Amino acid sequence: MSKKSYVSMSVIRRLPRYYRFISELKVQGVERISSQELSKNMNITASQIRQDFNCFGEFGLQGYGYNVSSLLEEIHKILGIELQHKTILIGAGNLGKAIIAHMDFEESGFVLQDIFDNNPEVVHQSIQGHKVRSTDTLSEYCKKERPEVAILCVPSDVVLTLCSELVENGVRGFWNFSHMDISQNFPDTVVENVHLADTLMTLCFRLKPSLEENN
Amino acid sequence: MSKKSYVSMSVIRRLPRYYRFISELKVQGVERISSQELSKNMNITASQIRQDFNCFGEFGLQGYGYNVSSLLEEIHKILGIELQHKTILIGAGNLGKAIIAHMDFEESGFVLQDIFDNNPEVVHQSIQGHKVRSTDTLSEYCKKERPEVAILCVPSDVVLTLCSELVENGVRGFWNFSHMDISQNFPDTVVENVHLADTLMTLCFRLKPSLEENN
């Protein structure tokens, strides 16, 4: 499937964005699109787009552009969305609940199987059809159910202990909402950190009046 | 305050990460740190760290390293956190509520003033001490209260109309959780998009078994 065995993180990070834009085109009934048109919509140069798609093989035709459906199907395959990784979520507080309600996991390649919390008042509650389990039962659960991925909606101070337990029990991917970067501590796992405060601080910086004058 | 009038987006995007790491050091009681030690913790080269900090002026001493408190204070100033931008949040659904409960806005440079929703069942409810207002009153509110920033927790199909109304009424910054990129449509505003599904798809791609073998 892949033309090059090594694809840089910057290309990888653009793939979901392509997927999102091209999905939108399909919804709008667009059948084909050139790299120039994509470029205008996405604020990426046409040459960058051609180069990115080229990493995974040729799927455009000179003078015709890209067939929207085929392109979408290809990116779907490249992203591995059909793999539908077995996933658990830990920490059913406000953020955890919002993520459960807000995200379409299967659309992104994951099946949310179970939810865990350490608060006795939350354990046994039902969230979107999932009964919340106690984190006391986590190791036992993992040994039996073999989830591959954990979504971490827990405070920083518990995240390292929790991840050690999960990694020992076969979890190899983390979608991490805690404030702590865990990539360094678990180098053999795949970690995507979501640091919401980081993007908020970036917004703060970019709003500075002095920048408006200078840039 | 700033040494260079133009600072690249990649440096800017690293600043909140520095702030987060150095805040953590301060909490741990660390008084000074070298670029080498920071490098080990952050997975950024020491030379990159020195170069980044150099963009904003010199605040380290050869052979001594950086004073943690001063460094933190400097980055706080550089990020403009003291500006405390007047902010409103629109869309008090699951995601909106979680953001209100989860984020420490003032820590990131914002004051959440009011919350809006178009659902009559939600309007007048109280969330963390804020009474939810109707989006029908948005223009009138903006003319009077002059919020600078809006947090958008609304569906894609309403986001463009909503932003037009807000921009007309003086809002110039958006923290956008809707699925639609609005940067292209409002070039004179500052937009930080948070596309949660993008990071989830990136995780999916990075979990592909073929990548483990190749990389």
Please name the two chains that share the biggest interface, counting residues whose Cβ lies under 8 Å from a Cβ on the partner chain: A-B, 63 and 63 residues
Low-confidence segments of chain A, given as residue ranges, are none
What number is the mean pLDDT of chain A? 89
- The fraction of residues in strands of chain A falls at 15-25%
What is Rg of chain A?
20 Å
The helix fraction of chain A, in percent, is 40-55%
**Helix and strand string of chain A, N-terminal first?**
HEHHEHEHHEEEHEHEEHH
What is this entry, summarized?
Two copies of one chain form a homodimer. Chain A has 215 residues and is an alpha/beta fold.
Explain what the structure shows.
The structure is a homodimer of 215-residue chains. With 215 residues, chain A is of the alpha/beta class. The first copy, chain A, is built from ten helices and nine strands. In chain A, the strands form two sheets. Chain A has a seven-stranded mixed β-sheet with strand order 5-6-4-3-7-8-9. The radius of gyration of chain A is 20 Å and the shape is globular. The relative contact order of chain A is 0.09. Chains A and B meet through helix 1, helix 5, helix 6 and helix 9 of A and helix 1, helix 5, helix 6 and helix 9 of B.
